[in-house]
User: What shape does this take?
Amino acid sequence: MAGRDLLTTDLSQASGWYAVLPEPAPAKRLRGEQTADWVVAGAGVTGLAAARRLGELEPEARIVLLDQHRLGYGASGRNSGFIIDAPCYTSAFDADYNRRLMRLFRAGHAGLETLVKHHGIDCGWSQTGHLCAVAAAGRVPDLEAVCRSLDSVGDDYDWLEGRSLEAVIGTSFYHAAIRLPRTILLNPAALCRGLGATLPPNVEVYEESPVRRIHVGVNVRIDCAEGSIEAKHLLLATNAFTPALGYLKRQLMPILLYASLSRPLDPAQRAAMGGDPEWGLTPKVAMGSTIRRVGDRMAIRNVVRHSSDFHMDRDLKARLRKIHGKLLAKRFPMLAGLEMEYSWGGVVAMTADYSSVFGRLEPGLFASMGYNGVGLARGTASGAALAEYALGGESGLIDDAKALAGPKPYPPRPFLDIGAAVTLAWKRLRVGGER
Assistant: This one.
């Protein structure tokens, strides 16, 4: 449309979590030539945690937090809303690795819980845990491997199968599951918006202010769409979008995950479904469906691409809604015909060996990212730790974040694209009935 402000957040591409929230106040954008002591780029959970910690430790400093969109609209607000604090996806690694992960998860979980309760952030915080499940009996060894990993670090879990599992989720589709009791379920967009509204007073948030270029010299200059800012230090929390800024081009691979949120269930559907009114389920097998029941709605995430472009046209949205509706009906026949009200894409940054990025990239430039799809707790802890590290601090969490950092490089393009396509195709084939 002629004359349309291209920086205005496109609400037609919003996640369902964002779409159900009240409309926010108009965005404050970075304009003109400015200076600051610290700049944080990326207002997802990592950037929010980093900016908050800087504000706490440097109360006299001017700290600027930049985001391309509105708070809660970006990647951190597009996930399925699980704050997972157990290293249940890393059974291939040793106990020391998993203990470090668990400490970061627990620190992030505790920090978020404290903030949500202290500030009364309305984000649907639900302490119901979550299920890691398999549909086929032949996949049970996969769950047992996760149990051994959890046992090695002394973590808690419950084993559910048969009627006990069906009583929770209202379907006999799944054969068995591990229940991880400390996982929090929530609306991730509401969490991000609430965290942004409760930052220390010396942290200034500028939305709809995309970073275009970074110039590193005596100071760091950050050019945005309508202005620029010079600072002594820049902390990058831009995750999968970092390569577009000229950094970590071979360390991060963007993966796009598509999700849908249904319209509210009618009384007959609620009665026919049964089960608990609030639960979340992740698949043990890669490329399976992540599913949540959110009161009167159902959420599902599936369909994966190698891309960082989450924009969808009408045809793609229609196809996704049809696919997601069929996948839900496959598990819950009583929900056949349930319409998906919102569909969206969310980008995660995958690394070649599940290592993250943490530390200094150049003088004055620091980064924390690459959490392979489980970043709400880990990203929160790592963002705060990065702020402390940039200030010269030392702590056990900083040591853990550094020990888990240093991803191996991916092959250059186009080999990366070919490899990603082959890998995704193989995983789609392997998932079988778990999809």
Observations:
- The longest strand covers residues 340-350.
- The mean pLDDT is 91.
- The longest helix spans residues 95-119.
- The chain is about 30% helix and 25% strand.
